Amino acid sequence: MGFAVWKLGGSLFDLPDLAERIRRLHAEHSPASPVLIIPGGGVFADGVRKMDQVHGLDPLESHHLALNAMRLSASLVAALLKLPVTSDAQAQQAAINAWKNRQCEPQLQVWDVIDNWNTHQPIIEQTCGSLPSDWRLTSDSIAAALAAHWGASELVLVKSIDRSADVSWKALAQAGAVDEAFPAVAPYVKRIAWVNLRAQ
């Protein structure tokens, strides 16, 4: 059984019916497959960016603060969906192993992946190459690198905007639709889909 990684854009957090839209998307697109949601930093990461601009933080410190913002986002999305947050790296790996071995029913989960990322980044880089630890790498590339590392059948970028099929990842990065590191990570992912959830 394959499983999908959904990277949920933080720009969607202002949708009053976000939970309903997520559940509807799951029912329409992935009812037979397990889905793990990795929320982006959203307004929490925006706050880190603002403080970085004000105080001129060290790039690595800003990066780690932004990663912690993703923790808050995971807690928010889980609360909206009335689901627990899966944050333990061992529990996450156990779930992946079970999905691959068809040992559990398909389900929707919300994951805080920061402990997993901090622990396994050197191993992940063996799959995806060297990754920056600054604003060039945000939740888009983190979700993509983890999807590649885990062998996910699909990465779905759940966004607030449309993507034309003929637009390259490099062009999207230059436009700010994905982060700067994403074009280098994307080739390692089995399949990438794009959904404009705001338009659903």
From TrEMBL:
InterPro entries: AceGlu_kinase-like_sf, Asp/Glu/Uridylate_kinase. Pfam families: AA_kinase. SUPFAM superfamilies: Carbamate kinase-like (SSF53633). Residues 4-162 form the Aspartate/glutamate/uridylate kinase domain. It comes from the Bacteria. This is Aspartate/glutamate/uridylate kinase domain-containing protein. It comes from Blastopirellula marina.
